[in-house]
Specification:
The protein is an alpha/beta fold. The chain contains 20 helices and eleven strands. Helices cover 43% and strands 11% of the residues. The longest helix is centred in the last third of the chain and has 28 residues.
Length: 497
Amino acid sequence: MKKRLLSLLLAAIMLASAACSDTTSDDPVVTDAPAADTAAAEAVETEAETEFLPDNLPADLDFGASSVHTFGWEEVAITEFFTEELNGDVVNDAVFQRNQTVEERLNVVLEYTLAPGNNANHQAWANSVINSTMAGDGAYDIVAGYSMAGTLLAYNRVLHNLAELPHLDFDMPWWPSSLMSEAVCGGKLYFCSGDISTNMISMLYAMYFNKTVADNHALGSLYELVYEGTWTIDKMIELASLCYVDANGDGTRDPMDHFGFITQPVYNDPFFFASGLSTTTFGDDGLPIISPEFSGEKTQALLTKMVEMYQQPGLYLAGYTMEGYDHARNAFMEDRALFFDTEISYATNYLRASEASYGILPMPKYDEAQEGYHTAMSFPYTLYGIPTDVKNPEMSAAVLECLASESYRTVSPALFEVALKVKFSSDDDAGKMYDIIRGSANFDFGRLFCANMGYLTYSLFRDAVVNGNTNWASTMKAQSKVLDKYLSKVVEALTAE
């Protein structure tokens, strides 16, 4: 399989990028994939062959050994786009097998060009695609960027309307219905994601709990709270309040104390969506509008609850820096925190190298009356699109569908069933929790297009919590016209002929 790369030392650059990520970025540090588990991998392969749906691509599709050139973001390349060879690692080998199968099924050659494209670089990455497409270079058959970059491309009208292309079947399970329904605007869909993106699983938000701390405080089974539907924010606060210890006896809270819950500002985001709230909804004409509940009483109540909870000794909001993230992450691994909410990738990137005994829960519900659990995505997942200057849009669409369906049958089972639910879970309940978390993923049009809306659809609530500003009505009154203006421009751009 040929790979045309911008960097001749891709692996070294990726490691450097992970180590030097933007301190205010939502990007987690990306490390290598989990160690191999041959028996588990074989079991997953057997299950994939017998239980997972096939796609509806014609069996006689043949693109004559054409090159399919994808422009991607380099920080996730090895786990997301390709691997150079089989090495016995479960996820690595699944990605390799997926690409080989796609090449053989469609008679294509997958090629990749990569450039920096994470939180700190996504605008420059998107601009390079915009410039190339508007010049009519026809350089790329597929573009695959950090989520905010993907929406910037849609906004700038350089992507095909995927709803009009053949072979893409968005009713299939490898395309999550919650994302597809939120991403459509005026019947047009410019990007897609799902099983095709390994980070779509890794970037789900969840709540980790430290079993040692829970046992020390005799808290009982936290999993039972989820099963009973009583795992709520109030219950989390109640339990967290039992676990504070002033470790150095100085009478003040500091990052080295013991807490019931510790987190970092960006991880306030999932509480909003876990409470069943949204920033946007769809009007009678099917077009997105700012959701009334964004400025409503429930959002106000949630904001007040979260500001007040961080005033209690047992719940600690670390600083808005990489140092703050380190404090939160390390406190959990050092058995100094009961709860820590972060991405699922925390298990594979950090917990596997620690001595911490942990479990995982979905994000807590707003209250017991809420039906079901919800979660949000951290931003470093990949959105895929097809540039408007592509030479053969039918081929690009077929490759996307084939990559996604093969990922559904090979890569996702390897990552989810083996790497997460088996290798990095210490009990059967944790596997069930992962299923609940994955099934509760929530997408929101306003969050998807935050880069085109002044980032207000996440920063307003996040910053209000951080600053202890509970006057939400005043905040939204000041920003309502700005939000409406941003959104109208997004809708205009996406629906223009």
